[in-house]
Protein 1
Amino acid sequence: MGAMTVAIDADVCVIGGGLAGMTSAIAAAEAGASVRLLSHKKSTLRQASGLIDLLGYTPAGEIVADPFDAMATLPDHHLYQRIGEQAVHDGFDLFDAVVGESYSGDHTAANALVPTYGGRIKPTARYPTMTAAGLASDRSPVLFVGFERLTAFDAPYVSASLSSDGMPAPTRGVTISAPGSHRPDTRLHRLVHALDVNESVSTSTGSQPIRDALARRIEPHLESAQRVGLPALLGLENAPDVRRDLERLLGVDVFELPMGPPSIPGQRLEHQYLDALDDAGVFRTTGNPVVAFDADAGRIQRVYIDRNGSRVPYTASQFVLATGGLVGKGLASDRTALSEPVFGCHVPHPADRAEWYGDDPHTDQPFARFGVAVDRSLKPCDDSETPEYDNLRAAGGVLGGTDVTMELSASGRSLASGVRAGRLAGERSN
Amino acid sequence: MSDTDDTSSFDPVTVFEPTEQDLRSGSDDCYKCSTCDSVCPVAAVDSSFPGPKFQGPEQWRLTRKEDTEIDDSIMGCSNCMRCDGACPSSVPLSQMHNTARGAYVEQQRFASDAVAALRSGAFRRAASIVRDGVADFRERIRNRLLANYYTAGRFASKLPRVANAATNFGPTRWLLERVLGITSERSFPSFATQTFREWWADRGGSHVENPDKRVAYFHGCYANYNTPAVGKAMVRVFESFEYEVLVPQQRCSGTPMFANGRLDDAKRHAETNVESLAEAIADGAAVIASCTSCSMALREEYPELFDIDDIDAVSEHTYESLEYLRHNEDLDAVLSESSGDAEEYVYHAPCHARNQGLERQAVELFSSVDGVTIEDVGDSCSGISGTYGWKTEKYDNSMAIGDPMFTEMEAAAGEQGMTECPTCAMQMSHGTGYSITHPLELLADILTDDPSASSDR
């Protein structure tokens, strides 16, 4: 019986299908390599807000106006310092090319201030054009509109919270009932789909397209508002049309507030990245985890994915590890230690578990910086700072050393390290 | 953290002893991100369907209480299993759905409850059980009929011409719709005048003997009764690589039974399949399926739902046909040096192929063949999901789910459809009028130049 002896070969094999992995794969392909992207699950972009942060706060906790200015003041061990400002520019250039006009923010080096569904103001480098009319720096009056039984977005709360967080525009929030009758459990997805295809819904005045019905319900609350903010559910494929129709019907600007998972802007971004991977000629295999590898003379020879107990080999001359951090399961932890489960790369961390956490949950947390340690060419290193494998690089959430949650730099880290790791892998494989 | 601050003295304890096929751990792993709901094709179009997160972990928890029954909406799940591939926490959603659906159908069997209520003197309760039961009766009979396509196919194949005339005869369809709720919008698939197994027996079985390279073909119901050309293509392709093909005794893989909550029926069929496939595996064969729902069932649903001797061996040794060749022969190299008739294909990846990690396989392999162009029509579900789209009350949802696929197919350059799944093929053809082929058929045309091939088809 055949034991899966023929491996599928590519110049570069990228493991992990999130923002860093997809960016690496595109960068490697652009460097002329044939690329295989192995991903266990659907892309984690569905879990992401769709906002692309570069650097929102300094490690000292000060809000950042211009991320490139602030970058120069970061400590030497910070990833941006280690791989250089050019990698950050390259990462954002690649991102801008993937998303085209569907994103805004590339006209300036400065951060934009975007209101979130939690009622806070967030400094970010790129934001969906669907969100552009909502910037907190704009002084025109806003009406936030939420929906009954869509509990993740409470418009009156968001309005009050943004005002107290310093948003200069006059704000109001109302909760209306959404057109159509949808079960609460999957209301979000039903609404997204119904708006996307402009489904017909029955209302007290007969049946009409849902975009019209929605505009009618918002209109009585408009008063002096010049913009209307809604939770990010205005369609998927046809989102720009949904926004345009609502703006035409209401006569004011309409914008979305990015939401938590499952995120519709994240899903739109995922589609754009998948198209970009296809355009770059990247081969994708999705649905099974990488569980083992063979190495020889300090080089990874092949990795194996698990198919219900049988192992399927993939070979490449260069590998990129982009499996994510603790939440993305690119790092594993138990009560005694942390590990990187695919290649067993060294993950620096205190032996005493009590030192993994800070006493106050809101201050510095050592675990937030856990991850593999890399050299300047992004090769994971052992505890004596020697590269573990000559043909392995790491990118994105699996990298340690930075508290990206406090800094708001997770996407920037993925883009900068993704493009650098992918490009180096692509060049070395030729 | 006050007097328990000393973490060094804190030892983990096991609160729940895990048991075989226990779903608690799956339920505990759900952190309510709702990503599963975002990929559910039914939840996107059906306002009454609460989505996989409810059907799986939430319903499992709710029904731990004895007086809570499985919600009726479980029958709205089409068993596409896309939620499995989306869950970042590896919650076994489809296993939970299959288990809940099985329990729901079990509780629909009302007669014994009614008798018990009568015996205890609860006449009103007995009457209400009977009333509810009669209302469900039509649905149960219909679902049972659809789930047991194997049996229908077996009878129809005895007199295929009569069956073909009768099943698509107007008044028959009117009756099926009115009495049983099987939509008359679709044409029934036609039954082959010679089944795959009849052809195999006529041909005298395998033309290759090779103890070192053996495969056992799981043709399933459809390639046997309806599209034997797919099975014949499988034989041509594998024999061209000098494999000895075995065609073991087999029954339905269970896919339509899982989808209709008929776990008892599925288990009966699974027992036959596991026994004969395990025997072939012991003889050195790998199990090859041409239908991706069959391979999905043998690989994933069997060990998740049943405890049968050798079931894990069958799961581990089952492959989709092209997948197996690709990893055991240098199929990529062979194809990149081959040429095929100039044809433009529009390919749809079935949900069950997607869940096995095979969504790009056909496109990757055939793109390298000189003359052949193949375009992927995107990640939409076709909407038919086996028996789902055949139910009158589900037909409109089925077509709404399939709409993006139809649109993409029409926008694509080619007009020759391709997919691995027989019911996706029905839906593709129903929505666009295109004829649909299986990757094995194209592969056979590319790789084999057999003059007898035309008589094989």
Protein 2
Amino acid sequence: MLPVFAPVQMHIPDGFLSTLVSLVLWVVSAVFIFTALRQVNKTLGERQVPVMGVLAAAIFAGQMLNFAVTGGTSGHLLGAALATIVLGPWAAVLVMTAVVATQALIFQDGGVLALGANLFNMAVVGVFVSYAVYRLVTGLARGARWGVFLGSATAAWTSIFIASLAAALQLALSGTSPANIAVPAMAGIHALIGLGEALITLGAVAFLYAARRDLLNLASGEGKSSKSVLIGGGLIALALAVLSPLASANPDGLEWVAEQKNFLSAAREPLYAIIPDYVFPGISNEAVATIIAGVIGVVIVLGVTLGVAHLRRGRKAERGS
Amino acid sequence: MSGANSLTPFLAGSSLIHALDARVKVPLTLAFILTVSFLPFGVWPVYVLLLALTVSAALLSEIGLARFLRRSLLALPFALAALPLLFTIPGEALARFSLFGLTLTLSGPGLVRFASIAVKSWLSVQAAVLMAATTDLPEMLLALRALKLPRLLAAVIGLMWRYLFVLVDEAGRLLRAREARSGSREGAPRGGGLAWRARVAGGMAGSLLLRSLERSDRVYTAMLARGYDGEVRSLPHPPLSARAWGILAAGLLLLALILFLSRWMVA
């Protein structure tokens, strides 16, 4: 198996986020992706399909490029910052969307229902935060060489770090992992993973700086929308950086939100309570119910197995004759 | 690198599941995962029934049960994130551990919650594995188009898929070249320091990006030469057969029933 398809901690699988959190983040991500589609259509026009498609493939394949850190662990690229620096924020949103969605749909790297949250973390937060940090640093350096290098490294590290905070908060909001454990754990691991990302991104940008400096001209204007992206990215970074230590210090706050949500779902319960409250038709013991469900399950599976075997034999006989 | 084909989890076949229209498979998979997500914690009989569903679908698909189960365990390490639940949910104490001077109390409800999350995640991954193993990406995109995925995004993902294998080969060549140039003595670490190794990997990423930018120029020119005008066109697809509609409806109904059953059990 190639390293590119090894599951990364950042990709949340299905089952770990509550339905409400998943669905809300699906809507949020969809809004950003639609905006990105419109913006990219304006700037790239008919070139966008080949450029976005091939570059998404490059970022995807680029995740294979790893380097040994120590004792069998290795650093490798996620690519949100690199894509943002080379393509600009909106195009990077689309590229990361294509990559993250394919990882979920084809390689089960991240869940399908959780894809909305994963897109939000990697394609929206990762990209916007990279953009804000890169613009800020290159702006402060007034186009000097060190600004490009420092900007790309800090953008890469910050994007990974802030995206991991977002993932930790989502897990806490879903009641899967208490905030006072999830936030420090995710932040700690990704502060290290972010270093690998920063180093590779720096190397890549240094290469591009030598070979095609024109590609790194992100800072020099991209219209009005770039300012709102800059501000938005900064706000996302700030909000998450402030919110998560707060949540971590007061896990009860988030628990309270989760409780409220449970309360909401409990409030829907009466819909089903119309039916008299026994556990299974005629069976009051849950253990017995589980055993019966197991027996039914085995019968279904056995039936299908026999059916397939029968069909296969039939097909073989057909081919033989 | 000859690995490009072994890269995709899609396994060509002629089973009933393979033959099923993607416009039925994809919505049913999504509905299955959504149903699992809606299930309350601790409804074991329902989990067992859903497991029977996924396993029988896997048998029908003839992709090999062992392979199916192995791939479905992919998300297992993530269960670590839910592990603290064992000790943080209040309830009757099942066991007590002391760890580094910390006393941890394993609670009954905590155990139920943790096991439910793990099982629900496993069931969802199984459904996704099954879909990916029996549906090729182009087919999947068609189905997603039918579910209102924007045409442009579908086109970008489709093109990405087409060039992914080319660029994975390219990345493989870069890795092989690095391997060939990195001599090492027995026992001594390869190459220079950490920063140096990271810089080399970064240079490879930069060169990959540059080569693919140039490739995208060539692809664009080739598309123009073939009459591309910014619009991605595809042949209209035959409407779903009555049988496919039937399977879709039956599947959705079954899932709704299961969801209803689970709520009934909790109530």
